[in-house]
Amino acid sequence: MFPEFTLRYARLPDRFYVRFDPVPVEAPRLLAFNRPLAEELGFDPAAFDEALDEGRAAYTFAGNAVPQGAEPLAQAYAGHQFGHFNPRLGDGRAVLLGEVTDREGRLRDIQLKGAGCTPFSRGADGRAPLGPVLREYLVSEAMHVLGIPTTRALAAVATGERVFRRVPEPGAVLTRVASSHLRVGTFQYFAARGDEEAIRLLADLAIERHYPELALLPPESRYLSLVEAVQARQARLVAGWMGLGFIHGVMNTDNTSIAGETIDYGPCAFMEAYDPEQVFSSIDEGGRYAYRNQPWIAQWNLARFAETLIPLIDDDADQAVERATAVIQAYPEQYEAEWLSVMRNKLGLARAEEGDRELAEAFLEAQAAGRADFTLSFRQLAEAVEEDAPALLELFEHREALHEWLPRWRQRLAREDVNPATIAARLRATNPLYIPRNQRVEEALAAAAEGDMAPFETLREVLATPFEAQPDREAYARPSPAGQAVFRTFCGT
Questions:
Q1: Distance, CA of 24 to CA of 178 (rounded, Å)
Q2: Which one of 109, 254, 314, 373 is the catalytic residue?
Q3: Quick check: 48 pLDDT over 90?
Q4: What is the maximal distance between C-alpha atoms in the chain?
Q5: Strands, DSSP E only, in 114-188?
Q6: How many CA within 13 A on the CB side of residue 50?
Q7: Residue 114 needs a FRET pair 20 to 30 A away by CA distance; which of 27, 156, 394, 461 works?
């Protein structure tokens, strides 16, 4: 059923992981399966259909049966969690089965999340509740369709067991696909132990898998170039989050992917009314990972990554620090360029002009003043290219700033030398109508906990085509009704 495994990570020295077979679950039942992703990965559709008919698929995706050729392991890593360093975290409930080569020749990790209590579990149960598993499935697949680099969801399986968090909840296992699970925290684990050999092995693996062009560089520039390459992807990634109003919720260094993908969807959410101070995570009491802080937390995390590579950057430690610092100090300019590119696209602008940043900021300020929905404010611009659109105006409780902004925007559009219909089409192709709105996600998860997967399936269908209006599904585009908005999300660990 599975494609052939390539055990690249499992061939690293033993100190990089602990070999660990998934712990079987009581009554596995397949809840969701991502057939397009399976085909992309090279699954044999006929073999999978046979496994599905026989019930073997649920057992495999639950971890009850280890696929042929896999060598399950729990990866070692450390991390800064809310700014505090823990030298030993690791996969406390996840098991890497191995890597497969997809139909485009890319190496992809396949991991089971919620697969049991590993030696890294630190007293936890190693399991995952159904709600967080289905949230990660919905949100990661939505992010993929929205064009944001991300891990993917291949399957979700109910375990037939209960897990205990705030209250007893149904258990589940997520099959996650990633370009890799190399994290900033993976490098920190070995840096904390002074293991330069391991850091070099990791850096070379990261280059091999994600930045092969760097392998042609001499060692004296290769590893600093790796910092630059990871930084460029992080700047682009976070700018993409900001353009969608997405809040990750737990931007710890162990949740920062070297591949530049969004990873570990815990207490994540999408803003509705624009508020740069917005926080959704139940554990982020100080607002460290608030929406507006995400770009600068990414820079902080990148600085921690650069620190781990100091021994490889230059034999002279002072020179290495100086060179790495110069790279990290270039981040704000890189991020600003990425963010402005995102905002130009969201405003229908293809050309660059000097005042574009101020124009974008003014629209966000108008949204804040009007308590307007972030997603729909950008979406409804397509109807306002030539004249005020009632649907846009209705989003704003206070419209003074919007009325002042619209003529400025239209004057700027006039200099694009493109007809209004083309600009409107640009705007609809860039600004989604549907996002995983918190209320809809929570409704789907609550129904699933009661055994009803229909709301989940409907929401999954809606989110698969986020830029196209879908008949009879207008409610999925609307913000939460007053008093029903969801402002707290939980990570499920």
A1: 23
A2: 254
A3: no
A4: 65
A5: 128-129, 152-164, 168-178
A6: 7
A7: 461
Partners of residue 112 on adjacent β-strands:
95, 175
92 labeled binding residue: yes
125 appears as a binding residue in the annotation: yes
Does the annotation place 412 within a ligand binding site? Answer: no
Question: 3-state SS of 371-394?
Answer: CCEHHHHHHHHHHCCCCCCHHHHC
- Reading phi first (left if > 0) and then psi (alpha if -120 to 50, else beta), residue 76 is in beta
Q: Are 444 and 459 in contact (CB under 8 A)?
A: yes
Residue 150 has pLDDT above 90, yes or no: yes
Phi first, then psi: what are they for 329, rounded to 5°? -70, -15
Catalytic residue status for 254: yes
179-207 pLDDT, tens digit per residue, is: 999 999 999 999 999 999 999 999 999 99
d(CA 88, CA 94): 15
Instruction: Give the 3-state secondary structure of residue 330.
Output: coil
User: Which residue bears the tokens 């207008």?
Assistant: 474
- Specify the pTM: 0.97
* Secondary structure percentages of the chain, helix, strand, coil, to 5: 50, 15, 40
On whether 122 is known to bind a ligand per the annotation, the reply is: no
